[in-house]
Design brief:
peptide transmembrane transporter activity, SBP_5_dom, 11 helices, transmembrane, transport, about 30% strand, membrane
Length: about 450
């Protein structure tokens, strides 16, 4: 009986399969497909689903499209060359370069596998630096030649500037997704990286630190940068919960005490030397740098620091200067940018102890006329400082006129040999500090505040 039932069951199954075999095959196939599809979908979020991180960064300033902060430009493109932290030059989108025997021609040979963010292959036609007194030849698709009117050794640093096509299309990790303008000024710019799965939105319209700090407190931005201090109303950002604070050094600016060398008092070299000996060995506001060249520059081989604070020696020099002997008690006015008022007061306190009358005046820009100005200058990765100290230059705000320094600056920007340039700028720094048009103070600290 059991055998009959088993046979009957087998017969029924065979009959069912025979009748519905097409439907069974179809639904089996559909089920198998659905199984693998769901298996793939369920595993995708864990291993492959992109997580897009977004950061909204606020900055103080007014920026035009061709004057954006380097932090933004370097994210969205690259230059023919790139500079290391100490100023040495290396290849970037150019795999190599060749300088002509007369030192005026620069041929750059491009990598052939560099692409813009829109997918277009970079060619020599895409390189359009706006240089004056420079002619350009493009011998082939991946070669570009610049012919300069005169020898200019910092040229390799100049072509480290990021290259763009129209619309801020570059070759960096990030592409410009959106840009908002207010007249000629950029209000915000949004960057996106498919590779890094990250969005940066830069808000660039804040007029003051106070406005920027308020925006962070209200949650309008998730990060603020280039703050000179952490104070906010009656508290400090250090007291904010879920807030990260980073203290950094701005190596692009060197805070400097400029002397007007044409002033009746400060025309005295002895007086300027004496004032230089009054500078503190360390400042709380930044990382000390006592010479015109950055202490980490490849051209700064001597580690010059001849003006360590020596108040006794300073007093002798100040009292022995022609100004002190002919006019009696010395009076000096320090014009300072608002962010360096604290430093100005520290210097004024030292000078007061040396029987100098000091007046501090706050200014928002370089004054057209001053005795002493506490400000800053932009530090290039190249040691060339021709525009700052050469007697022929309008940016020589100290009215400095030293023929030896003029000659060294002229030679430095015409010498192509690295070792010879090092020797030239070593002499430049040594002789400039022996006849100081300024006291070089520090690279300023700044703060970044962000949401955790």
């Amino acid at each position: 009986m059991i055998v009959l039932r088993r046979r009957l069951l087998i017969w029924l199954i065979k009959a069912y399969v025979k009748r519905w075999r097409k439907s069974i095959a179809i639904y089996f196939g559909i089920g198998l497909f659905v199984f693998f599809l769901f298996n793939r979908i369920l595993s995708y979020p864990i291993t492959r689903m992109p997580f897009i991180e977004k950061e909204i960064i606020g900055m103080v300033g007014a920026y035009t499209a061709d004057r954006l902060p380097a932090e933004i430009l370097n994210k969205i493109s690259r230059g023919l060359t790139k500079a290391s932290d100490d100023g040495k030059i290396f290849s970037d989108i150019a795999q190599k370069w060749k300088i002509s025997p007369n030192g005026k021609g620069y041929a750059f040979f491009l990598h052939k596998n560099i692409y813009f963010s829109d997918g277009k292959n970079l060619t020599s036609k895409d390189i359009a630096y706006d240089f004056s007194d420079v002619s350009v030849i493009r011998p082939d698709k991946y070669t570009i030649v610049f012919n300069l009117r005169d020898i200019y050794s910092p040229f390799l640093t100049t072509v480290a500037r990021p290259i763009f096509k129209k619309g801020f299309v570059g070759m960096g990790d990030y592409r410009v997704k959106k840009i908002k303008l207010n007249g000629d000024f950029v209000e915000s710019i949004e960057l996106y990286s498919e590779k890094k799965k990250k969005i940066y939105i830069y808000q660039l319209f804040y007029p003051t630190d106070t406005a920027l700090k308020t925006a962070f407190a209200l949650g309008e931005v998730t990060k603020i940068t280039n703050l000179s201090d952490l104070s906010f109303k009656n508290t400090t950002f250090s007291a904010f919960k879920n807030t990260a604070i980073a203290k950094k050094v701005d190596y692009d600016k060197l805070v400097t005490l400029f002397f007007n060398t044409k002033d009746s008092a400060l025309s005295s070299k002895t007086l300027r030397e004496g004032l230089s000996y009054t500078m503190l060995d360390n400042f709380d506001q930044g990382e000390r740098n006592s010479g015109p060249l950055a202490h980490f520059s490849y051209a700064n081989q001597g580690g010059v620091n001849i003006y360590r604070q020596d108040l006794e020696h300073a007093k002798l020099l100040i009292e022995g200067s022609e100004t002190a002997t002919t006019e009696g008690k010395l009076s000096l006015a320090i014009d300072t940018l608002p962010k360096y008022e604290k430093t100005a007061k520290i210097i004024a306190d030292v000078w007061t102890k040396l029987n100098i009358n000091v007046e501090i005046r706050t200014v928002n820009q370089i004054p057209s006329s001053f005795q002493v100005f506490l400000g800053e200058f932009n530090v290039s990765s190249d040691p060339d400082q021709y525009t700052l100290w050469h007697s022929s230059q309008v940016n020589n705000i100290t009215n400095y006129d030293n023929k030896r320094i003029d000659k060294l600056l002229e030679d430095g920007r015409k010498e192509l040999d690295i070792e010879k340039r090092i020797n030239i700028y070593s002499d430049f720094q040594k002789y400039l500090l022996s006849d100081p048009p300024a006291s070089f103070l520090f690279f300023p600290y700044y703060y970044e505040v962000s949401k955790k």
